[in-house]
Amino acid sequence: MSKTFKGIGSSEGIAIAKAYILNEQPVEDFIKNDKISDPEKEIEKVNKAIEETKTDLKKLQVIALEKLGKEKAEIFEAHLSILEDPAIIDDIKQLIKNDKLNVSKAMFDVSKKYIEMFEMMEDAYFKERAADVRDVSERMLKHSLGLRIIDLANISEEVIIVAEDLTPSQTAQLNPKMVKGFLCNMGGRTSHAAIMARSLEIPAVLGLKTILSDVKEGQLIAIDGLTGDVEVEPKDKKTWLKKQEEFNVTKEELKKFINKGTVTKDGYEDFVLESNIGSTNDIESVLENGSEGIGLFRSEFLYMNNTHFPTEEEQFTAYKKVIEKMAGKITIIRTLDIGGDKKLSYFEFPHEMNPFLGYRAIRFTLDRKDIFKTQIRALLKASAFGPLGIMFPMIATVDEFKQAKEFTLETKKELEKEGIKVGKDLQIGMMVEIPAAAVNADKFAKYSDFFSVGTNDLIQYSMAADRMSENVAYLYQPYNPSILKLLKLTIDGAHKHKKWVGMCGEMAGEPNAIPLLMGLGLDAFSMSATSIPRARSIISKLTLKETQELAEKALECETTKEVLDLVKKVIKL
Ligand code: PEP
Ligand code: MG
Predict the structure, then answer these.
(1) Of 314, 352, 519, 522, which has the fewest beta carbons less than 10 angstroms from its beta carbon?
(2) Is the residue at 248 inside a domain?
(3) Mutate to test the pocket of ligand 1, among 198, 431, 528 (most ligand atoms within 8 A of CB)
């Protein structure tokens, strides 16, 4: 029987496909302490689990080689060597023979011992081995327990994934040809899974709270990633297919804006439309959608999709690749914005009650200058290949910005002394995503070459509403007059010192926000590449004057609804 649900539309598009339930209980929950009586039989099970794991890893190695290149695929070589390590395998067999442990308990105990041993080592190389052992032993344990092993990258039929939550790295693995959409109990428009879904053009509805228990594996689901509507076992599949067709037609029509200039109805040509990216793989989409630059490269994904802190050379290669592909258009790379919901498998952050308010982003890198130095050196070296903006995340005080800028300039001198070329077209800027920076923007603008407003965080901190929580998602209110006032302060503060202001938070690509932001005087809009044609079409239909009048009136409103009503009068989308 058909059932409908309403969640938060997080990545537009219509999808109709079977449910793929992603409900992973920790593997530890399945391990029993039962003793065994036949060690030989148990050892056979060890050998079988090893062989099955090897087969998996070899397959993954081939896929990684195709999708991610030789360097990334090498990780599987390291994983395969763990399965051939006589010390580990002998330890498992000894526990079975001597202590009569069952296969999974023996594997679990041995891998735990090695993980702890590697984690305690000082040397970064050995610390990283802990993550490798964890990965391989989990796969081996699952085989020994007969549990399903989920390789999201390997889904081979069209599905809609249904999960509690998707981590950014799980989302990055999704193949849009097979994964037609996803639904999560948790999250909202600005959680990183949603942001990545938009760049992969996968429709997504988040914040559904109970969807994981409401849907069964294989049930047909239809979803609307714009409105947040979900229908399980749809009554009227034809209506959904029609909606899908309409969506595709509009998308096709917008394509004519890809190669046009960004010009208002009255001929103003200075707005710039840029893209947000998370990896070098996203550049194709940036180029295909007529982007005028990269307004945000979230460099943390380079760290997250890795087993170690990326080296200077690894980072340099990635940054250079992006800058070169942009062929003279600006690339803004944000320094490591880790912490909050963005974790590293190879680094343990201190436990904090409120990680979003804690040790993260610039707070972390100013504290760990060794890690910061590697990144800044790589960025400066890459700047020789085209225009670059280096941008610091989560700046709260003028002092933090000055420290980070000073550190960058000292590093630049160091490189020049070493005879290494640094580019001339280099700007050093900051994110405005903490209200303290927005209200005092003119003070920061004296030192910063540019601002980029991170509305995802600016709204969460201004409203004191966790961006990951579906329970307070209603407080994500980009159109709230309080937020508009913060934006005005930011933009006016920058312009007072003749600096430019971009926005790389999700608000920049929202159709209803664009007229307001134009009127407030925003200079650059950075969004998922696929949103660019629509943004350009909206700009082309408005005069600068009418957007300025709109912004002025909106600032006087009391509620989000009043603002949106005003916007709707101006644009007939
Ligand atoms: C933001 O906060 O708006 C932003 C662009 O950064 P992130 O979403 O990565 O926190
Ligand atoms: Mg942010």
Answers:
(1) 352
(2) no
(3) 431
Question: By alpha-carbon position, which residue is closest to atom 9 of ligand 1?
Answer: 298
Task: For residue 73, count other CB atoms closer than 10 A to its CB.
Answer: 17
Its domain, for residue 263, covers 255-268+433-573
Distance from the CA of 568 to the center of ligand 2, in angstroms? 28
Atom of ligand 1 nearest to the CA of 507: 3
The token duo for 7 is: 């969640």
Contact 497, 568 (CB under 8 A): no
Do residues 114 and 197 both lie within one domain?
Answer: no
Per the structure block, which two tokens stand in for 385? 């290949």
Provide the phi-psi class of 24: left if phi over 0, else alpha when psi is between -120 and 50, else beta. beta
Tell me: do 348 and 449 sit in the same domain.
no
Nearest-angstrom CA–CA distance, 40 and 548: 80
Is residue 402 located within the same domain as residue 355? yes
* pLDDT tens for each residue of the chain, 573 residues long: 899 999 999 999 999 999 999 987 778 888 888 888 999 999 999 999 999 888 888 877 776 666 556 665 677 788 888 888 888 888 999 999 999 999 999 999 998 888 888 878 777 667 667 777 887 888 888 888 887 777 787 888 999 999 998 876 677 778 889 999 999 999 888 887 888 888 888 999 999 999 999 999 999 999 999 999 999 999 999 999 999 999 999 999 999 999 999 999 999 999 999 999 998 988 999 999 999 999 999 999 999 988 899 999 999 999 999 999 999 999 999 999 999 878 888 898 999 999 999 999 999 999 999 999 999 999 999 999 999 999 999 999 999 999 999 999 999 999 999 999 999 999 999 999 999 999 999 999 999 999 999 999 999 999 999 988 889 999 999 999 999 999 999 999 999 999 999 999 999 999 999 999 999 999 999 999 999 999 999 999 999 999 999 999 999 999 999 999 999 998 864
- 184 catalytically annotated: no
Same domain, 278 and 216: no
278 and 376, same domain (yes or no): yes
Q: Report the C-alpha gap between 204 and 207 in whole angstroms.
A: 10
Distance 385 CA to ligand 2 centre (A): 27
Instruction: Say if ligand 1 is within 6 A of residue 456 CB.
Output: yes
Separation of CA 548 and ligand 1 centre (Å): 26
For tokens 């041995």, the residue is 110
In-domain check, residue 249: no
Are residue 33 and residue 165 in the same domain, yes or no? no
The CATH number linked to 12 is 3.50.30.10
What's the N-to-C CA distance of the chain in angstroms? 35
Statement to judge: residues 123 and 38 lie in one domain: yes
* Contact yes or no for 86/123 (Cβ under 8 A): no
In a domain, 539, yes or no: yes
Q: Is 557 a catalytic residue?
A: no
